[in-house]
Design brief:
Number of helices: 19
Strand order of the largest sheet: 11-10-9-12-13
CATH superfamily of the largest domain: Nitrogenase molybdenum iron protein domain
Strand content: 5-15%
Shape: globular
CATH topology of the largest domain: Rossmann fold
Bound molecules: iron/sulfur cluster
Helix content: 40-55%
Length: 474
């Protein structure tokens, strides 16, 4: 090949690389984020609010924000996501959004008839300084909230926090507004599932049902964002935690909060408001975290673990044992949200894989310490960062390549440029389906994660093997 055509090929390869400007050399960046590994607070608040039955999420800000929040959820779930907006224009931006919100509350209850409106703020209304409790007090005084209907709120300024904190804030609002102790401890457990998929919420409820442990789950997006096609549009599908259940959460005998960042603040609020003791656990992703969840539920509810659950656990361990040769010391780069990554990293380390680049876009003071501890015995240098971006993640991968990438849809650009197998994991997943229907939590979810990992790694072996080494049986 001539020098000229070699140069031409190199140039062509550079042109088809989508992130070709990402340099290998890492320089400290203090005020520039490139390809953020996060989305904004109201998206999380909207997702949590959809987990209340008959709820209309309401974005107190401009229409641009709310369109972005709705479209991100719609693209991820492939379902229409209903929400309302205060529709700020220049006037509201200068004089405040009180009259917009009062008008919106009136319109929403009159036209759409939800049981509850869950208001979250945006950067703009937070910068103006709108006092939402005062506005809601005025709405009540002006009889804009019909008898038996409710309006709750969460402050979600997106110049601090991310979609995870937005989710946590709206979930805590459910406790602040509704949970009441009736003076007795009822024989049921609250489960705050954290930011997981509707399919994961179903799986957690299934495990609780197998243990015969009565639970209240909130929020609960099952059958709201993964409902069946019935041919009939329903603005408020049948799923979701009810207001009565949220009130009753104040009289439960205990709370299990899954994911410290997304669920911890609600569990602690419930404890201090209603004296419901709580255990804050990791998300039950992988064998060890699921063991801790099942054992805590067993103790708290005073029940036994049935053989069906022990069998599922055994099946998961059987897959790990059978396929150990394909997993052993494979290097993985992870990007996502703190709660998910803590459990996923523990799972990968427990099956002898090597997560060596682990980055979250959400700032979490516990994240780095937890990951350091979990990866302490990994026989390789490990990069860990919280509150950083995907450009740094990409640079880590360029400097120390891996066998597998795991992260949300945006990682596909890195996977293509670096030619590395990629598994979609976390939020948002905009270009595939499955996450709404098949869980990744608990033992069965662990099997699904393993299936995806093994498919990605073994497909690569098939793709790269010579004709002589191309095996039918692997
Ligand atoms: S302005 Fe703030 S709330 Fe609106 S989309 Fe942007 S980050 Fe989110």
């Amino acid at each position: 090949m001539s020098a000229l055509s070699m140069n031409g090929n190199k140039k062509l390869k550079e042109i088809i690389m989508l992130l070709r400007h990402t340099p290998k050399e890492i320089k400290e960046r203090k005020s520039l984020t490139v390809n953020p590994a996060k989305t904004c607070q109201p998206i999380g608040a909207m997702y949590a609010a959809l987990g209340i039955h008959g709820c209309m999420p309401h974005s107190h800000g401009s229409q641009g924000c709310y369109a972005y929040h709705r479209s991100t959820l719609t693209r991820h779930y492939k379902e229409p996501v209903m929400a309302a907006s205060s529709s700020f224009t220049e006037g509201a931006s200068v004089f405040g959004g009180q009259s917009n919100l009062l008008q919106a509350i009136n319109n929403i209850f009159t036209i759409y008839e939800p049981d509850i409106i869950a208001v979250h703020t945006t950067c703009l209304s937070e910068t103006i300084g709108d006092d939402i409790p005062q506005i809601l007090g005025k709405a009540r005084a002006d009889n804009k909230i019909p008898e038996g209907k409710f309006v709750i709120h969460a402050n979600t300024p997106s110049y601090v926090g991310t979609h995870v904190t937005g989710f946590a804030n709206m979930t805590k609002a459910m406790v602040d507004y509704f949970a009441i102790s009736n003076g007795h401890k009822e024989p049921k457990i609250n489960i705050i599932p954290g930011w997981v998929e509707p399919s994961d919420m179903h799986e957690i409820k299934r495990i609780a049902a197998e243990l015969e442990a009565p639970i209240v789950m909130f929020p609960d997006t099952e059958n709201i964002l993964n409902g069946p096609q019935t041919g009939k549009y329903e603005m408020f599908p049948k799923g979701g935690v009810t207001i009565d259940e949220l009130v009753s959460a104040g009289s439960s005998q205990g709370t299990i909060a899954l994911g410290g960042l997304a669920s911890g603040s609600s569990a602690r609020a419930l404890d201090s408001k209603c004296k419901v003791p709580c255990e804050i656990l990791d998300l039950p992703i992988g064998i060890k975290a699921t063991d801790r969840f099942v054992d805590t539920l067993r103790k708290m509810a005073g029940v036994n673990v049935p053989d069906t659950i022990t069998t599922e656990r055994g099946q998961l361990i059987d897959i790990v044992t059978d396929m150990q040769a394909y997993l052993y010391h494979k290097k993985v780069a992870l990007v996502g949200d703190p709660d998910q990554l803590i459990s996923l990293t523990e799972f990968l380390v427990s099956i002898d894989m090597m997560p060596i680049h682990i980055l979250t876009g959400t700032k979490d003071k516990n994240f780095e310490k937890r990951i350091e501890k979990i990866t302490a015995d990994v026989p390789h240098e490990v990069n860990i960062a919280s509150g950083k971006d995907m450009m740094l993640y990409h640079q880590w991968v360029k400097n120390d390549p891996v066998d597998l990438l795991m992260g949300n849809t945006y990682v596909k650009y890195i996977a293509r440029d670096e030619d590395i197998p990629f598994i979609r994991f976390g939020f948002p997943i905009l270009d595939r389906i499955g996450h709404s229907y098949f869980p990744i939590v608990c033992y069965r979810g662990g099997m699904r994660i393993l299936e995806k990992i093994l498919e990605a790694l073994m497909d690569r072996i098939d793709r790269d093997s010579t004709e002589i080494a191309f095996d039918l049986v692997m």
